[in-house]
Design a protein that fits this description.
276 residues; 23% strand; 8-stranded antiparallel beta sheet; single chain; 18% helix; 14 strands; globular; alpha+beta; 4-stranded antiparallel beta sheet; Jelly Rolls
Length: 276
């Protein structure tokens, strides 16, 4: 009997999974309450250990290092709805260096008019976000969780993906136009893609090697989501954020092992190799 289930098969085939009702109503309410109380920050402005750092002005507001934004965000570090699969897909599972780290984590609010141009794909062969499977093990450089805090239906600016593109040998023709040029339009048509619809509390798990972006939001209101990008424990955060000792001391040991998979070695400290 195969040790893999239908979700493993679909992840390998398509590059993504939909996790329905990934979080319960209480956590969903706590996260939305936190969103309601975000301060109005200017670009690059800090709020404690959280910084507004929008990837692109058309993509909406992004609050980076959101794991430091309060208890509800800490709960997501190793949430049981996804953490076991994340460990197997990108955590060097059953090797001599197992473990995870969070490459990037941010809260995002996209209002009317915002969209995100298609990017990534297996053709790039970037080691940081590569998709791989060999000898019974996944070897993914980055696997993402996109958690919807609001319903995301037609016109709400949902995530746009090209199924199977995490293994593509060829770039989609849309990449012939520069990234900056594509952002000048109101949206883009990407043949072979579809826009994901989600209910609040659902999570989209996907390989970062999958070609992905976001459709334009044409409806009023807000699209709220949280994105946690995971990678193998020997990596380092994408933008260089560091966690405070207060946060590391506050979370559980399992959560701390994800936030700080490699504990700094201090001169004079008596500590072994960590695998004795």
């Amino acid at each position: 009997m195969s040790k893999h289930d239908i979700q493993d098969y679909l992840f390998d085939l398509n590059g993504f999974l939909m996790l329905k009702n990934a979080i319960d109503g209480n956590l969903l309410a706590d996260l939305n309450h936190a969103f309601d109380n975000f301060p109005e920050l200017e670009f690059m402005q800090w709020w404690g250990e959280v910084q507004r750092l929008d990837n692109h002005k058309r993509a909406g507001m992004e609050l980076q290092n959101i794991v430091a934004g309060g208890k509800p965000f800490e709960t997501l570090i190793d949430h049981p709805s996804w953490i076991d699969r994340i460990r197997r897909y990108c955590g060097e599972y059953e090797t001599w260096i197992p473990g995870l780290f969070i490459d990037e984590c941010f809260a995002t609010i996209r209002r009317t008019g915002g969209f995100f141009a298609m990017h990534s794909g297996g053709h790039e062969r970037a080691i940081r976000n590569q998709y791989g499977y060999a000898d019974g093990r996944w070897q993914c450089g980055q696997v993402n969780i996109l958690l919807a805090l609001t319903d995301i239906g037609p016109g709400d600016g949902g995530t746009r993906i090209i199924p199977g593109s995490h293994k593509s040998n060829f770039a989609h023709p849309i990449f012939d136009t520069s990234y900056s040029e594509r952002f000048k339009g109101d949206d883009e048509v990407v043949e072979g893609s579809f826009t994901v619809t989600m209910k609040a509390g659902d999570a989209l798990l996907f390989s970062d090697a999958l070609s992905h972006g976001a459709a334009a939001r044409t409806n009023p209101g807000e699209r709220r989501a949280i994105i946690y990008r995971y990678g193998p424990g020997w990596g380092r955060t994408r933008y260089g954020y560091q966690y405070s000792r207060e946060l590391l001391d506050r979370v559980t040991p399992a959560q701390r092992a994800i936030l700080e998979p490699i504990v700094p070695r201090i001169p004079g400290e008596a500590r072994g190799l960590g695998h004795d």
